[in-house]
Write a structure and sequence with these properties.
Elements: E1 2-6, H1 12-44, H2 47-73, H3 87-117, H4 126-153, H5 156-183, H6 189-216, H7 224-232, E2 239-247, E3 252-260, H8 266-283, E4 287-296
Parallel strand pairs: 3-4
Antiparallel strand pairs: 1-4, 2-3
Helix pairs in contact: 1-2, 1-4, 2-3, 2-5, 2-6, 3-5, 3-6, 4-5, 5-6
Keywords: Membrane, Transmembrane, Transmembrane helix, Transport
Organism: Raoultibacter timonensis
Pfam families: Cation_efflux, ZT_dimer
Length: about 300
């Protein structure tokens, strides 16, 4: 006996709308930060500041990709996509990862050219530090806000973008350190810091790809032992096995086999399956669908 239960909580579209609002706010903040760092870096000849500005531009491009991905992911299930379109959010995360790789190439190649040619042109002024410190504070604020909302909404795009923005903040710290060394008479520190920026971007890309591939490879979203122990605590359940979970962090699908007393009536077994489904969704709010297969507890091994 099997029954599929739909999610008994606010519509997925409300979650997607909230993610979209966050992305719009972050987009405008990232554009402001990128413009400040890149334009001032270009005016003073600082490769590190320009590199940091480029990184912030790619943050903004990632926001745009995220908005497109969320627009696609929010579409309801249809005949050709019976499980919905939630994985488009994951595809958007992968696209952000690709942009990060392109940003790393741009930043790294520019730094190498400066090191090889020994063309150190950075001009450090007190305002250079003002620009970097202000944009660093903005980045930190964006990171904490986006990470908090990402956890609340179980959003892969927001989580990936928050990690990206945090790396941007850490890069800004590195740029500030580089500017200090340039001011002290070590001009080569500027492109060297730009190379450190490249490494930070690559590390961020790796993290983005790792989380996206976990979803696309149907990585288990809830530990099997944990879910089994929970289900076994429901009155009437004799045994639970073949427990599987998959999906995005915000939309998890569960299927499992539950053994009941072999003398239980069909109606009672059906009611128990509903109790199991409702209990799982109450315990794990990210679960949107549960499939329970009822079996008699007659000692057989499935």
């Amino acid at each position: 006996m099997a029954r599929t239960a739909m999610l008994a909580k606010p519509p997925v579209s409300d979650r997607m709308r909230s993610i979209r609002r966050v992305l719009w706010v972050i987009l405008f903040l990232n554009l402001g930060v990128a413009a400040a760092k890149y334009l001032y870096g270009a005016a003073t000849g600082s490769a590190a500041m320009q590199a940091d500005g480029i990184h912030s531009v790619f943050d903004s491009a990632g926001n745009v990709i995220g908005l497109i991905g969320i627009a696609l992911a929010s579409r309801p299930a249809d005949e050709s996509h019976p499980y919905g379109h939630a994985k488009f959010e994951t595809y958007a995360s992968l696209a952000i990862g690709i942009l990060l790789l392109l940003a790393a190439f741009e930043v790294g190649s520019s730094a190498v050219v400066k090191l090889v040619s020994r063309n150190y042109t950075a001009d450090v002024t007190p305002f250079s530090f003002v620009v970097m410190i202000v944009t660093l504070c903005v980045n930190l604020g964006v990171t904490f806000y986006e990470r908090r909302r990402g956890k609340e909404l179980k959003s892969e795009v927001l989580a990936a973008d928050a990690s990206h923005t945090l790396s941007d903040a850490l890069v800004s710290v590195g740029v500030i350190v580089g500017l200090v060394f340039v001011a002290l008479g070590f001009p080569a520190a500027d492109p060297i810091v730009a190379l450190i920026v490249t490494v930070a971007i690559l590390a961020t890309a790796y993290d983005v790809f790792k989380h996206a591939l976990a979803t696309l490879s149907d990585h288990a979203r809830i530990p099997e032992d944990e879910l089994k122990a929970f289900v076994m605590g429901i009155p009437g359940v004799k045994e639970a096995h073949r427990i599987r979970t998959r999906g995005t962090e915000g939309e998890v699908y569960v299927d499992l086999h539950v053994c009941v007393d072999e003398d239980m009536t069909v109606g009672a077994a059906h009611d128990l399956s509903e109790q199991v489904e409702d209990a799982i969704k109450l315990r794990y709010p990210q679960v949107i669908e549960v499939l329970v297969h009822i079996e008699p507890d007659d000692g057989h091994e499935d």
